[in-house]
Records
---
Amino acid sequence: MKTLEQFSQEINKCVLCGTCRSVCPTFGVVQREPASARGKVALCSAFLHNEISLSEGFIKQMNECVQCMACHKACPNDVNVPDIILAARAEIAKEKGLPLAKSFILKNILDSERIMPIAMKFISKLQGLLFKGVPEESGLHRRFPLPLIDERRVVPPLAEKFFLEVRSQGPASAGFKQGSEVRSKKNTLQPRVGFFAGCLINYMLPNIGEASLKVLEKAGASVIAPLDQLCCGMPALGMGDVETAKSLALKNLEVFEQYELDYITTACSTCGDGLKRRFKELLSDEGDDIQKRVEIFAGKVRDITELLVNELEFKDLNAPISDSGLLTPNSIVTYHDPCHLRRGQGIADEPRELIEMSGAKLKEMEHPCRCCGLGGSFNITNYEFSMAINRSKAEDIKNTGADIVATACPGCMIQIKDGLHQLGADTKVVHVIELLAFHLASPLTGED
Amino acid sequence: MLSPNIVKELTHIVGKENIQTSKEDLICYSYDATNQKFLPDAVLFPKNADEISLSLKLANKEGFPVVPRGAGSGFSGGSLPVEGGVVVSLERMNKILKIDTDNLTAVVEPGVITGEFQWAVEDLGLFYPPDPSSLKFCTIGGNVAECAGGPRAIKYGVTRDYVMGLEVVLPTGEIINTGTQTIKGVVGYDLTKLMVGSEGTLGIVTKIILKLLPLPEATKTMLAAFPNMRDAAKTVSKIISSKIIPSTLEFMDKNSVSCVEGYSKTGLSTDMEALLLIEVDGDSGLIEKQAETIKKVCLDYGAKEVRIAKDKREAKELWQIRRAISPSLAKLKPNKINEDIVVPRSKIPDAIIGIREISKRYKLINANFGHAGDGNIHVNIMIDKADKDEAAMADEAVREIFKLVLDIGGTISGEHGIGMTKMPYVGMELSKTTIDVMKKIKQVLDPKGILNPGKIFPQV
């Protein structure tokens, strides 16, 4: 990973024109220069010139970025502000250390394939005591004050059975034996696809994982979800903990290398962006061998929508389009472009094609690529700010009059659901892949 | 440095939340698009004219500089606090107060984003034409202060032509209203026109009455590529003499276009010497005909290729090339000396050839683009400031370019303003007597010289 110092040339590329003010969502809410991408670059420049230290004000501004990449996309000089800010966060974490709770969670729980599921299981059992259900919603409100959880917030409950847990107990997926057993050689012409679940799908929204497997198999892939896969590390990187992110990248690389895979896919835009792009950066100062391996790994990664449309050439659902329930041929679906899919991976058409394949009518909202405001842990540390950014997204969705808003990232789904709930809108929030899976065999349950 | 007492009084005026003195905040209000930095001592975010009035009265009493600021996207340093003091950011005063569809007027606060205002009136079938390239992020207050123009000036004029009246806080703190809400009005001197383009040195504008037009029914955008630069420059006046006033007639030379990412996507040849971006607007039947006429003129006068945008998306792509030029020039060299000279339309070929010749003689890289239709060319000399010889050469070259421009009947700044970057050259265009008259006006309105000091007039 490049250090902030190594970004000085990138920082000098910024001519302070102010274009980013028109797209930066944090500036949109605060309406003051330090909240804008230009302001943050100016602060990083001042820090590198020893005009300011890693002061509280500096740290605040570096943390108040949702990493949506809209500034980078709009910048006439192609200044990669999001990565400059990540490097600043890494600098802060290195010099100042992470807050104790964050550091403990990242280093001891997230970075362990054994402890993470146990910890999540523990919370899952406990959540009934801490939260109460929201009527008509598959979300929870807290029962009494809890650190980091705002009282208005609708928290998605942890799943009773985690996705990978079900996988380890249930029948094996087509073409692969269950568990992490290694297959020695290909005996099928089916493309072999490794499924990277990601934490949100594994622990909170396992239905998306199930839907993904169902659709991938229908599309002719042979799928395995390795049981010992870990968090993609992007939350750690976002907080500036490069070491944990690196360790996770390396471990995941080793897990997926055990299988002879043609593709590695995920239904989480953030994980996908991380797997494709960040793993290489994180492991760039490792030996040649690892760099070669991570290059091969990254070359196999596809977002699930990209894999289905471009690689598996999945053109026809080949199933009766259901005319009742969640999705009918009369359903109007609007689509939200996740930042890490649209700007991070340049994928915009594929999810839209899949929505149309599901038989629904696609109706675009006014600003489909505007950030939902989640920004990883930004949503936890700056809940109100995060929801203020979400407001225009929620209104945009409501204004379409759509029955369903589909997106391709579980993080966006959680955020959008919370925002719509607070706006009093009853638009259903689903993953694109769930729309397809809806028509295949058993209808969706649980997560609406 | 401001004394703690002054900070306390300012805090009392605007409230604790609306004054910033931390180093981080000061850094973020120290720059504009000139890429130069001057640290203020405090930043204020007033919400109305009264708060600005009280702050200016205090400034007069205590003698500290006050510098108004919109989005900080100016090209001449108009909002830079060159002598420190207090930056008055108008970011909070960003409301559209009224759009009057009967009288075709609107009243806005200075912090309104120009583009957002345009979209708001367009929703009502109305039109606010001034369109600086920065319209998505610059403010109308800043446009008024600098008298911003834009590509549409050729047909529709500049900000000045749309400002009917103002509420202004004078440097001494009094609040006055200038102009009228009516098209006609001749009572007293035209203080509105005096304020527009005064670069925040004569007052802080707090309300703006704007004239609106009906929205043209349709627009047609096209791009013409010329293998010969002189042909392109000539074509500009040929189009006008064919009795068509396009709503846009933009010129871009090879060096300008080469920096723009995405140019290649248009499929136009990359070895062209110059491009013209042309737009006509109005009745949809009429503009089809006009577009064809223009296409013919371009081809007759040496264009190798003319691309007419099929739809809005294609038009947007063509515009994107033009809008992206200015900031992307940094790819040529890190520092940009950015001039916005104007010459009579018929003199454009002379001007461009002269400018090229001067740059060549001084061995400087130069990129020219701009609003050729109204004779306004953005001359950019790209240098590396660290190279002292090159910087000195550039200064000399600018002086020669200005001399050339003035000799052929032009002016040294069309729409960016003088600010601090063009201060040394004002005397080339204005006589001593003219400058003295201007200074007297400044002296009457701002006897203590506290409002935006160090701008426009060369310091002796």
---
Amino acid sequence: MAMHTPGPGEDASRADGAGATGTADGTAVGPDDTAGGPEGGVTGDGGADAREDADAPRGPGAPLWSALGLLVVLALAAATRFLESWVPAAAEGSPLGGFAEAVEYPVYAILLGLLGNLVLSLLGVRDRLAPAFRTEFLIKTGLVLLGSTVLFDVIAQAAGPAVLQALFLVTSVFLFTWWVGGKLGLDDRLRALLASSVSICGVSAAIAAAGAVQARREQLAYTASLVILFAVPSIFLLPWLVGVLGLSTAQAGAWIGGNIDTTAAVAASGAIVGEEALQIASIVKATQNVLMGVVAVLLTAYFAFRVAPAEGGGAVERPGLRTLWDRFPKFVLGFLAASVAATLWSNGPAADPQAGLDTARALRDWFLIAAFTSIGLEFKLGSLREAGWRPIGVFGLATVFNLAVGLLLAVLLFRGFAF
Amino acid sequence: MSETPTTPASTPEPAPPRPRWRIGEDWAATVTGLVLLGLALLGVIPAGLVP
């Protein structure tokens, strides 16, 4: 990825004024792009998209490469399904039998994705295939289908604590990150991106915030890279800590859903803990996703009325109901609709309602596995070298704060939660 | 993704023509998920077809 680096922590006017970023790096993500907001088109919501649009292959061969990339994702997903049943059977009776039984499919999927990433990078074809690695689309489709496996009364029961947790957590983590970013001298726009991504939902929130504050493109790239850097180890670390801390499945799901930044990583980590944790983690994450619109409106207002006039600008989009709707994650509506439909269907007159629901669950697993392999396939370490230590420090401190406050809220709000 | 120059002094370039209509990834995932669920419930995707 060719990225010029004025340093994310530099003052925006200095970086821009120097004219050092005359290419795509020197451009802001305009509100009209929806900066990849939910309406941002098929390339809008993926974190990698913000970084890789310029690198994406174009021309007559592009559809062929995309088709090949899709085949890679499907092949890795099929290999994951094979391994999740073959490995425990092969290890049965051996000293590793218990461990092999405990390893859930997201682990295979992400590891295979990372391995595929390495092989494709060595072959020099990874970037050409990358447009097929649609983590956001795959995870959102999987989450809509996940709605069909969550009874609506579970959603209704979890909604109260999930909303409370989201409000407290998003507010406190956002303000803490903003404060730490200020102490370390980060530019206001980068602070907004980091605070949004840590407190809400990773890359999607960063993209929405980038549109709201007209952040520079490289700031979004840094933030997206940091989100992925912290999310991938968290997928494995949090389920381990859940066991160490002895959390219930509901508390584990709430903690995971409130802490890991990207929705796909939340689903992967929740699935490692178990089905019930996956359900609560998804509900909590979906609730946080909804707050993305509110934060985008508040950020837009703050930068329009405070920051832009101070910088002598004023071209920032004014917030309104339209902005709120644009940033609203529509897949949450699909998740709720699927849950209502499945609840009604299971109580309806169909002769064997469970058969259709089982098919939907199998489809859900395929989409989730494909999304998890895409996490591995999309992972790029190289761009992080360009980030500098200050954004990484801010992100790390904010993550620790998020873990602590999120743990407290999950334990308190989901104490006694019963499925 | 279209881009907007941030440097105030720079000459604004004409915005590239945007497609008249396009579906966002969020909506695409929602529609795909619900359609697949409907097909599964109605038996159009037969049980056992998806491993």
---
Amino acid sequence: MSSRKADPRVAGSIRTRLVSLGLLIMVWSVFAAALADPETLPSPLEIGRLTFKELFAGPLLYHLGITLGRVVAAFILAMAIGTAIGLLMGRRKSVDTWFDPWLLFFLNLPALVTIVLCYLWIGLTEVAAITAVAINKIPMVTVLIREGARTFDPALDDMSRIFRVPRLTRLRHIIVPQLAPFFAASARTGTALIWKIVLVVEFLGRSNGVGFQIHLYFQLFDVAMVLTYALSFIAVMLTIEFAVLQPWERRASRWRRA
Amino acid sequence: MIGIGIKGKSYGDQPVLGNVCLEIASGECVAVLGPSGIGKTTLLRIAAGLDPEFDGHVTRPERISMVFQEPTLLPWRTAGDNIRLITGASDASVKEALVRVGLDGKADRLPDQLSLGQRRRLSLARAFAAKPQFLVMDEPFASLDKSLANDMIALTLELLADASIATLLVTHSEHEASRLASSVYLLHGQPANLSQTRLPSGLS
């Protein structure tokens, strides 16, 4: 039976994390006060005020939404393709031998090169932007899922073959649960990586989104606005991490704590 | 009728099985005895259709079940789901299967919440819930203490008595073979061959 009472260790961990975050803001405040130059390093209070203003009277929400949409699209694309290729490579030695050099090539391809080439080949379009981000992320998903597929329990494979478990049931109840920790790891590292690349993609070739706004305020040497947009999106991604990814990961691995 | 006609099986240059021929009729339980590493599991994998790389032929029916050395359950699914998802049995059949092996009321437990003996029973329940024509048992009572192994043998005998299943039991225990099987074969030699054997009468 699960208990809804808060685990004191979890509560303690959250407290420590909040204190640590508070300390970071304090250090920032001290530096900002010591520097006494808001144009170089504005105080956290000033950034808070600007965020509030941009959120309710400016276009912050619009740009956050656009960037988030790109992050989600690239994430789904990269996870789907990376999982399929990773599964194939992890399960079939011949496929792994053939495609391992490709994987190494794409893992070492700088994100900037992919972005520039996609814009040059496809044009300054939404498709190019999302494709560039996905291409950067697919190899990492592939590597993690391949590792997951290599750790599959061969006895469960034998069992499902003997009992002629239907393909879909096998995928859903035998393969996916074994893959879940690797899927969760690639999803978490994926979101962290993808949103950073999305900002570069927007910086270089889009006319909206957080990356575009950062580009705009960079040209105006407006450090406060650059920080406002960057920190707002960090807040969005942390919310997704704590509200979506971590609870999902806990749910997927609940059976381990039985 | 199950027909196993193996002319040879090798792993690379290493021959493991020689001429191994065996027939098992419906309702019959045949045991194959032999020391560790002789090729019992190889024979069993070929018989079950898990290893197609051999010289010879095997005639086997459509519906096959297996009781593995380890319970081989899905740790992330409940006891009931372990039967329902794998065998496609209805909820009523799952409940009945669990009752028959003494796991009534444990359908919602995860395998890790069951004792080893209960997990073995669940594995047995799953094998019979699939309503097999051919049942393959790979040292199913290994690592159990004597009393638990005896309970499991009695339960298996009970379940086999109610069904007309051709059963191939692979074990290194003469005691298990004599209790469960009507014919006992010995796997011996290099590469291994099969010869029928009579167990000491005291064992049966």
---
Amino acid sequence: MRANYKVEFASGVFLLLGIAALIWLATRATDYGQELGKETYTISARFTNIGDLRDRAPVKIGGVTVGMVESVELDPVTFEAIVHMKVSSRFNEIPSDTGASVFTSGVLGDRYIGLEPGGAPDMLTNGDELFITQSALVLEQIIGKYLFNAGSDKEE
Amino acid sequence: MSKVNLENRTGVISGPVSQAGQCLLFLFRMLAGIRFSLTQIQTVMQQTYLIGARSLVIIMICGFFVGMVLSLQAINALEQFGASDQVSVLVGKSLFRELGPVLTALLFAGRAGTSITAEIGLMKATNQIEAMELMAIDPIHRIALPRFAAGLISVPLLTAMFNAMAILGSVVFSIGVMDLDSGIFWSKLQTSIYFQKDFIGGVWKSFVFGGTVSLIAVYFGYSARPTGAGVGTATTNTVVLSSVLILIFDFIMTSFLT
């Protein structure tokens, strides 16, 4: 009871097409190919305010993505936000006095972390912490300050 | 060999509850025959062709136009904020997470689920099922299981084809017609659609939907009253119950996955 050759061929084509579509979608239409590679190291930084920085937000040097935010947690004692970042091991010569800032791409765009490399001779390694940090600019605070200053100008 | 008791109970509560119970027992009876189905890979292949490969064209056409209309609407809405660059994120997220699996499963229920129910119901009406039982062939293993397995294989693959065609439709409309930048389109897609959360989540959903639709289709076919009207009712029930359950399971899975 051998099934029709045409039927076997058509269902084979169907299987291959479906699997090809799965692979194409996974590699071209998701971040699957955009992973940092297996080799990464983790660094952390403390900020007083990170705005709406999310997990998986990019970490950039000079606008080029070198890693991503792994997790964000709150220090229960100092109430600072601790941001853990995964950086690709290809970039293993980042000086230890590098600064980190929370930036916004565009006016209302996503938050990302920008690293500004310093000049120290020793390099960042796994588990290191960045000490020079600059918090996120929160739009409401800026507007609030502006309004406050405008009010005080009138009184003078 | 114990036959699954398929007498129809009536009653507002006891009817649906006992049907659900029968459906579950039916699933267990099918799964008990999974070793048997490995010797029947030919039948599974044939059913994959009949319900999977033959549904490919309708799935691809629908996917293409769903992608087009999604980008049309998204561009219209996003243009007001000057954010029409984000169209691929909107299209990709809604496709991978919701529309792809749900619409494919709904189309599959209409295209393949009905034909399974009608086929098995007609086999029952013409006493083919009873003849098999007399020959000591378990019809649940011989008839229902290959169709269930084929549905389980087909729906995720059809969903992938649907998504791929929808992305293609979105590319054709947003890049071809609306003249958006193709580099931004693809890079937004590749940075904002998460492999783990969106893609794998959608694949899980499509497996669940495929299993649901196939189980309902074979069960209703198998429990149909062996008359012309009974087969008709069973086919209607398949579509109605599949559609409702797909949407309910979709909500449940979405709330657990995210």
